[in-house]
Amino acid sequence: MSQYNKPLPQITPQTRELWEGCRKHKLLIQRCRACGTLRHYPRIMCPSCGSWDTEWVKVSGKGKVYSWTVAHQAFHPAFIDDVPYASVIVELDEGVRLVTNIVDASPEELYIGMPVEVVFEDATSEIILPKFKKSSWLQGISSSQIVR
Ligand code: ZN
To answer: What percent of the chain is modeled with pLDDT above 70?
Structure first.
């Protein structure tokens, strides 16, 4: 593993399960025990019913590109070699959205509804980041062959 020099997420009591799941290559999402609503980012209280009773569930890791923005300028020195890069919102099949990157698609290849699946990127020995790649059935298909 090469030296990782980008900013890292802070592990907090609310996010610890998420990062421990990623270390085991499992994408875990919070679910309200009172009403069943899934939520991400992790937080203490259910935004639907206000309950603090929470559990963590493993999700499929499959989803679709919901939206994205492209950074053409590095806002931190560690990203200089990455520009232009896309910060992408992926909507999981289970309905929650998370901000991530698509590791095997350039910004020009992205489209809304693009099927993706989670991969886990080792940042440090403690932090494994959930990233996404094109779904396996899209591998080997160029974007010009896809009817949108
Ligand atoms: Zn709830």
So the answer is: 92
